[in-house]
Amino acid sequence: MSEPAIVIEALHKRFGDLVAVERLDLTVSKGEVFGLLGANGSGKTTTIRMLTGLMPPTSGRASVAGVDVVRDPEGVRRRLGYMSQRYGLYDDLTVAENLRFYAGLYGLVGRTGRQRVEQLIAELGFTERRTQLAGTLSGGWKQRLSLACATAHSPEVLFLDEPTAGVDPAARRHFWEVIRELAAGGTTILVTTHYMDEAERCQRLAILWRGR
């Protein structure tokens, strides 16, 4: 294994009497496509939310790209991209406007921001859809746009929480082609899924069952 990009040690999350994640230990290498499998309610999304700094753990520790998620959640968020199954797009903005907005959030403004937006539009096939409202895109194109927004700042680590839920098989295949290209470029990717054909595309897997 190469140098780790994600290190999790005894990560624990409790909601009252409910233990959502129970003392999880996990290491993901740089540039790896790592799959986190499990049924709904197994703790996948809770784990992702702790690793992205959106939810503090009850106990344990974790680091992403060398940054402690508890001590410096803002520092973690600057180094990662996060795509949830709810997309997070602005339906009343065009494709290009969504990309410019997210690029700006990550500090890509001016000429640098414009160049990055144009690069994403070209690479992901949005040239003819750049002025289309995001809310009118099909599920597959929304998924593609969400991925572009999540990677606008070329993050070191990318978290994908069931990103292909509800899209057709052709869109899922294209999505995974892009994922392989990102990993080949050095991006570490942690993806949660319950599709076995997607699990086969990951280099390593972990299975969560009732938080374990």
User: Order of SSEs, N→C?
Assistant: EEEHEEHEHHHEHEHE
How many β-strand stretches?
9
End-to-end separation: 23 Å
Major beta sheet, strand line-up: 6-7-8-3-9
Rg, nearest Å:
17 Å
Structural class call reads alpha/beta
Helix content: 25-40%
Largest beta-sheet characterization: 5 strands, parallel
Would you tell me the overall average pLDDT? Answer: 91
The total count of helices amounts to 7
Low-confidence stretches: none
Strand content: 25-35%
Label the overall shape: globular
Could you explain how this protein is built, in words?
- The chain is of the alpha/beta class and 212 residues long.
- 34% of the residues lie in helices and 26% in strands.
- It has a 5-stranded parallel β-sheet. The chain has a 4-stranded antiparallel β-sheet with strand order 2-1-4-5, covered by helices on one side.
- The mean pLDDT is 91.
